[in-house]
Amino acid sequence: MYKYEVIIFWSDADKVFIAEIPELKGCIAHGDTQDKALKEVNLVAKEWLVIAKEKGWQIPEPKGRLMYA
Predict the structure, then answer these.
(1) What total of structural domains would you count in the chain?
(2) In contact, 30 and 16? CB cutoff 8 Å
(3) CB–CB of 25/62 below 8 Å?
(4) Is 24 part of any domain?
(5) What is the pLDDT of residue 35?
(6) Pairing mode of beta strands 7-11, 28-31
(7) What is the layout of strands, in order, in the sheet containing 28-31?
(8) What pLDDT does residue 18 have?
(9) Does some domain include residue 66?
């Protein structure tokens, strides 16, 4: 599996933890705990990569930790 950065944060509006992989557009999941959100986003990432390969999409190389200004 590729090693992409995962961002996990609490959503007050949804009352769940949200996990996102910014390098994989739309790769987002949620869970009642941080661990559940991470587990779910890893499943979504695997499916994202399968679909990307099937459709011939370019799969971004993991950049490691992303820095924001």
Answers:
(1) 1
(2) yes
(3) no
(4) yes
(5) 98
(6) unpaired
(7) 7-11, 16-20, 28-31
(8) 98
(9) no
> From CA 4, how far away is CA 13, in angstroms rounded?
26
Name residue 13's amino acid.
A
C-alpha 69, offset from chain centre: 21
Task: Determine which helix (DSSP H) or strand (DSSP E) holds 28, and give its type and residue range.
Answer: strand 28-31
9 and 17 Cβ atoms separated by less than 8 Å: yes
Instruction: Specify the length of the chain in residues.
Output: 69
How much of the chain, in percent, has pLDDT values that exceed 90? 83
Nearest Cα to 5, choosing from 58, 47, 64?
64
Domain span including residue 29: 7-55
42 lies in a domain?
A: yes
- In this structure, is residue 18 part of a structural domain? yes
